[in-house]
C-alpha cells in the first residue's frame, strides 16, 4: 500500500456499505485508473463489429481489396490496443484487491491489539480466523467491480448509439433487454445474501469448535472426551455442509443465468437481425455488426450479474468485519481522558476493594483460594484487565493512562501466548536483552536444562504456542519472559502449577531472590511457593479472610491448612497447635547455591 499512512487509519465502520466505500476512497486514484482502463476496454470490445461491418460493406462486397486490407489493418490495431487495455485493467484490479486485503488485515490486527485481553471474552478464535481468511478475501474480490462496472455502463451506451444508426427496432430490443436480464437475477441475489450470512455464522462456529478441540486435545484425551467432542464436530460439519449446499444452489442459479440469459438474448437479437437482413432492411455488414454488438454485450451483462453477486457476498463479509471493528475494550483508555491522573512516582501499594487485597510494595505476596478463578480475578483487577475500583497508591488504576500501567505492571498469565520464533525472540519480545540478563532470568526460572536440551540453544525455533515443548517447559519459559521484562510490579498467575515438586521448590527460592525488593504477586496453593512468600492472603468466597505468613496461617486458619495440605509433593510434617500441617523442606536460595 504505497499510499497508506504508517499510523492507524481513520476508517468508516458505521455500516458494511460505507466500509466498502471507504476502501475505494482510500485508493481513489487507482480505482479511477481501473475504471478508465475498464471503460476503454469495454468500449473497445464494441469497435471490432463496427470495423468488420465497414470491411464487408466497403471492401469485401464491392471487391475493393485495398479498402479491405485497410480495414483489416485497423482491426488488427484495435485488437492490439484492446489487449493492452485488458492487461492494464487486470493489473490495476489486482492492485486494488491487494490494497483492500492488506488495509483490512491491518485494521483487524490493529483492533485486535487494541482489544487486548477483552478479545477472547467478546469473540471466539474461530470467528477471528474466519474473518481474517474468508471475509477479507471476499471483500477484496468485491472491489474489482469498480472497473468493469463503470465500463459496462459506457459500453451499453455506445452500443445503443451504434444500433440506432443501424435500426431503431434493434436498438430498442437491446436497450430494454439488458436491464430485464439484470432484473431477473435480482431476487436470487437477495436470497444469496441471507443464506451466505447463515453459512458464514455456522462456519465461524465450527472453526471455533475445531480450535477448542486442538487446544484441549490432551485434556480431552485424559478425560476420555475426545469421541464426544469429535461427534459434536462431525454433527456441526454436516450442518455446515448442508448450509454450503444451499449457498451453492443459489450461486449455481445465479451463475447459470449469468451465462444462459445473455446467450438467449444474443440468439434472439441475431434472429431478429437475420430476418431484417433477409428482407433487405439492413446490409450483410450491418447484420455482422449487430451480431458483434450483441455478442460483445454479453461481457458487460455478465459483469453486471457477477458484480451483483460479488457485492452481495461483499456486504455480508463487510458486515462481519465492521461488527468486529466495533467491539470495544473492557476498560476505557486512560491516555486520552481529560485530566487523567499520573501513576505514582515510586513504589506504591495496590489495593482491590472488591476482595480487600492490599499488595505491599517491595514484597512477594501470595494469593490463595480454593477457587483459582477468584485469585485470577484479583490479578485481572490489579493489572487493569477488568473494570474495577482498584487503586495504585492514591489513584484509581482506570484513571491512569493505560500505557503507564502496562509499562510498570505486568500480568504473567499461565496461559499467555507463545509466538513462533527463535527461543531468544520468544523470551526477549520487542526489546533486545544482553546475554547476562537472559542468563539470569533463565537461571531464576530454573530453565537452564531447557536451553541446554534444545539443539541450537537460544537460537532454536519455537513453534506457535510452544507446541514443540512440554507443558512444564512452556510454563517456565513464560516465567523467564516475565522476569526478563523486569517490571516494577509482577502479577503471576499459577507460575509453577505444571512443574514437579523439586523444580517448583527451586523456582520458588530463585523467584524470591530474583525479585528481592520488587513488588511481586503470585497465585498458588503450593506450600513450596507459599513458604517463600513474604505475605500470604487467604481468600474465601473472593474476599480476603486472613493475611499473614504461610506458617502463621497454617497455625491460625484451619481452612487454609486444609487447602494447602492437599499438595503433598515433597513436604515435611510439622506438629502445631492446630494439628498436623504441611511445611516445605528448606530450599537453598540462589545466593546459598552460589556460595556452595
Mean pLDDT: 79
Radius of gyration: 35 Å
The number of helices is 21
Low-confidence spans: 1-7, 217-223, 332-339, 567-596
Oligomeric status: single chain
Beta-strand segment tally: 14
Describe the strand arrangement of the main beta sheet, using strand numbers.
Answer: 6-9-10-3-11-12
Structural class: alpha/beta
Helix content estimate: 55-70%
End-to-end CA span:
60 Å
The largest sheet, given as strand count, sense and whether it forms a barrel, is: 6 strands, mixed
Beta-strand percent range: 5-15%
Outline, from the CA principal axes? elongated
Molecular structure report:
- This protein has 596 residues and is an alpha/beta fold.
- Helix content is 64%, strand content 10%.
- The chain has 21 helices and 14 strands.
- The chain has helices at 16-25, 28-60, 65-115, 119-122, 125-142, 146-166, 168-215, 217-223, 226-278, 284-325, 372-382, 402-408, 423-428, 435-444, 448-453, 471-485, 501-514, 527-530, 550-556, 558-564, 590-595, and strands spanning 350-352, 357-359, 364-369, 391-392, 395-396, 409-412, 421-422, 461-462, 489-493, 519-523, 535-540, 543-548, 571-576, 579-584.
- Strands 6-9-10-3-11-12 form a six-stranded mixed β-sheet, sandwiched between helices. It has a four-stranded antiparallel β-sheet with strand order 2-1-4-5, covered by helices on one side. The chain has a two-stranded antiparallel ribbon with strand order 7-8.
- A hairpin with a 2-residue loop joins β13 and β14 (579-584).
- The protein is elongated, with a radius of gyration of 35 Å.
- Mean pLDDT is 79; it is low at 1-7, 217-223, 332-339 and 567-596.
Amino acid at each position: 500500500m504505497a499510499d497508506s499512512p504508517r499510523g492507524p487509519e481513520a476508517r468508516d465502520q458505521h455500516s458494511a456499505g460505507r466500509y466498502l466505500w471507504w476502501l475505494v476512497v482510500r485508493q481513489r486514484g487507482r480505482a479511477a485508473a481501473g475504471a478508465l482502463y475498464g471503460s476503454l476496454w469495454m468500449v473497445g470490445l464494441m469497435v471490432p463489429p463496427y470495423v468488420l461491418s465497414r470491411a464487408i460493406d466497403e471492401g469485401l462486397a464491392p471487391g475493393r481489396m485495398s479498402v479491405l486490407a485497410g480495414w483489416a489493418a485497423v482491426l488488427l490495431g484495435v485488437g492490439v490496443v484492446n489487449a493492452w487495455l485488458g492487461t492494464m485493467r487486470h493489473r490495476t484490479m489486482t492492485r486494488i484487491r491487494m490494497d483492500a486485503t492488506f488495509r483490512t488485515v491491518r485494521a483487524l490486527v490493529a483492533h485486535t491489539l487494541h482489544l487486548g485481553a477483552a478479545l477472547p471474552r467478546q469473540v471466539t478464535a474461530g470467528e477471528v480466523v474466519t474473518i481474517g481468511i474468508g471475509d477479507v478475501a471476499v471483500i477484496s474480490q468485491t472491489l474489482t467491480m469498480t472497473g468493469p462496472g463503470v465500463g459496462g455502463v459506457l459500453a451499453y451506451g455506445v452500443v445503443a448509439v451504434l444500433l440506432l444508426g443501424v435500426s431503431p427496432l434493434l436498438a430498442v430490443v437491446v436497450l430494454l433487454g439488458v436491464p430485464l436480464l439484470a432484473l431477473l437475477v435480482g431476487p436470487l441475489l437477495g436470497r444469496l445474501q441471507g443464506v451466505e450470512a447463515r453459512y458464514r455464522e455456522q462456519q465461524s462456529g465450527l472453526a471455533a469448535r475445531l480450535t477448542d478441540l486442538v487446544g484441549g486435545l490432551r485434556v480431552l484425551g485424559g478425560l476420555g472426551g475426545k469421541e464426544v467432542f469429535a461427534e459434536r464436530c462431525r454433527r456441526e460439519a454436516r450442518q455446515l455442509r448442508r448450509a454450503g449446499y444451499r449457498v451453492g444452489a443459489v450461486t449455481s442459479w445465479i451463475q447459470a443465468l449469468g451465462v444462459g440469459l445473455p446467450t438467449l438474448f444474443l440468439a434472439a437479437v441475431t434472429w431478429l437481425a437475420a430476418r431484417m437482413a433477409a428482407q433487405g432492411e439492413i446490409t450483410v455488414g450491418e447484420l455482422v455488426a449487430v451480431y458483434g454488438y450483441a455478442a460483445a454485450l454479453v461481457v458487460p451483462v455478465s459483469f453486471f450479474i457477477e458484480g451483483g453477486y460479488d457485492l452481495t457476498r461483499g456486504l455480508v463479509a463487510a458486515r462481519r468485519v465492521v461488527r468486529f471493528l466495533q467491539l470495544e475494550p473492557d476498560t476505557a483508555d486512560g491516555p486520552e481522558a481529560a485530566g487523567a491522573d499520573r501513576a505514582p512516582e515510586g513504589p506504591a501499594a495496590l489495593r482491590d476493594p472488591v476482595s480487600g487485597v492490599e499488595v505491599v510494595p517491595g514484597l512477594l505476596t501470595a494469593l490463595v483460594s480454593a477457587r483459582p478463578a477468584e485469585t485470577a480475578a484479583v490479578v485481572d483487577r490489579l493489572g487493569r484487565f477488568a473494570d474495577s475500583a482498584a487503586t495504585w497508591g492514591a489513584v484509581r488504576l482506570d484513571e491512569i493512562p493505560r500505557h503507564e500501567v502496562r509499562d510498570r505492571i505486568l500480568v504473567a498469565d499461565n496461559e499467555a501466548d507463545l509466538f513462533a520464533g527463535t527461543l531468544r525472540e520468544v523470551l526477549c519480545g520487542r526489546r533486545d536483552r544482553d546475554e547476562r540478563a537472559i542468563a539470569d532470568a533463565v537461571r531464576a526460572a530454573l530453565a537452564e536444562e531447557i536451553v541446554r536440551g534444545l539443539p541450537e540453544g537460544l537460537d532454536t525455533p519455537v513453534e506457535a504456542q510452544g507446541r514443540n515443548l512440554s507443558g512444564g517447559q512452556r510454563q517456565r519459559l513464560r516465567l523467564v519472559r516475565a522476569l526478563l521484562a523486569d517490571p516494577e510490579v509482577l502479577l503471576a498467575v499459577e507460575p509453577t502449577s505444571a512443574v514437579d515438586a523439586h523444580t517448583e521448590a527451586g523456582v520458588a527460592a530463585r523467584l524470591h531472590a530474583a525479585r528481592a525488593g520488587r513488588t511481586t504477586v503470585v497465585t498458588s496453593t503450593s506450600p513450596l511457593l507459599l513458604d517463600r512468600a513474604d505475605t500470604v492472603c487467604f481468600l474465601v468466597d473472593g474476599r480476603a479472610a486472613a493475611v499473614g505468613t504461610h506458617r502463621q496461617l497454617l497455625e491460625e486458619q484451619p481452612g487454609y491448612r486444609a487447602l494447602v495440605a492437599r499438595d503433598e509433593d515433597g513436604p515435611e510434617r510439622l506438629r502445631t497447635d492446630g494439628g498436623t500441617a504441611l511445611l516445605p523442606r528448606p530450599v537453598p536460595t540462589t545466593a546459598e547455591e552460589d556460595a556452595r
